Amino acid sequence: MKVVNTDKSLRRYQIIGFTGIFLMVSVLGGWSAMASIHGAVVAPAVVMVESYTKRIQSKDGGIVRDIKVRDGDRVEAGQELVVLDDTDTRSELGIVNANLREYLSRRARLEAQRDGAQAITWPEEVLSRKDDPDMARIIAGQTKLFETTRAGKQERKISSTSRSPSSMSKSAACPPSRTRRNRRSR
After folding, report:
1. How far is Cα 85 from Cα 62, in angstroms, rounded to an integer?
2. CA distances from 54 to 47, 60, 74, 81 (A)
3. Nearest in space to 140 (alpha carbons), one of 124, 120, 123, 156
4. C-alpha to C-alpha distance for 121 and 111, rounded to whole angstroms
5. For position 168, what pLDDT does the model report?
6. Cβ atoms of 79 and 97 closer than 8 Å
7. With contact defined as beta carbons under 8 Å apart, do 138 and 108 qualify?
8. Is residue 108 very low, low, confident or very high in pLDDT (cuts 50, 70, 90)?
9. What are the two backbone dihedrals, phi and then psi, of residue 38, each rounded to the nearest 5 degrees?
């Protein structure tokens, strides 16, 4: 049985392939460098408008509820062409208004806390809607939060003023208790 060296037989085909690619690139590159283009083909033509149709587009987009014109109708400047559905817009407005009412009532509560007031002074925008169930819930929540915070501050004030100077001197004289870490290090 004869052993054939495949590296030697394949090497010959590789050299032939690379040489062919090199020759083709050289010939095409040389031709493109030497060839010159002297002109172009000129032909007479007439450009015509295919139709007088105008495209319309909304800046915001949305769902079309009603189309007021049909294909081929003549329209005047300012004429209503389509009516967009305002359901999404109204729902977004409701969310923004709810956030506004929440922030206005929160601001009133925080200003009352900052000033140390006995009660919250509600702005006119909040008072004008106090009959709305959502607004009533917001007012009740902010009032409860205000009263809870005020009561907590008062308790801290009372507990800090109830400490007598003698009890403070005793606590200052007592050495701190040893922690677990201090016990281990000794």
Report:
1. 7
2. 18, 19, 11, 12
3. 120
4. 9
5. 52
6. no
7. no
8. very high
9. -90, -20
Q: What pLDDT, on a 0 to 100 scale, did the predictor assign at position 74? A: 84
The per-residue pLDDT for range 128-157, each reduced to its tens digit, is 988 889 899 999 999 999 999 989 888 888
CA angle in degrees (0–180, nearest 5) for 96-100-105: 155
pLDDT average, residue stretch 82-96: 87
Report field, pTM of the whole predicted structure over 0.85? no
User: Strand, coil or helix: what is 65?
Assistant: strand
Instruction: Give me the phi and psi of 62, to 5 degrees please.
Output: 145, -175
- Give the span between the Cα atoms of 174 and 166, in whole angstroms: 13
- The number of angstroms, rounded, from the C-alpha of 137 to the middle of its chain's C-alpha atoms is 29
Gap between the Cα atoms of 105 and 142, Å rounded: 7
Q: Comparing C-alpha atoms, which of 116, 120, 125, 127 is closest to residue 142?
A: 120
Which residues contact residue 175 at a Cβ distance below 8 angstroms, ignoring those fewer than 6 apart? none
Cβ-proximal residues to 119 (8 Å cutoff; 6+ apart), any chain: 112
Per residue in 72-81, is it b (16+ CB within 10 Å) or e — as a string? eeeeeeeeee
Distance CA 153, CA 184 (A): 40
Q: Give the Cβ contact number of residue 104 at 10 Å.
A: 19
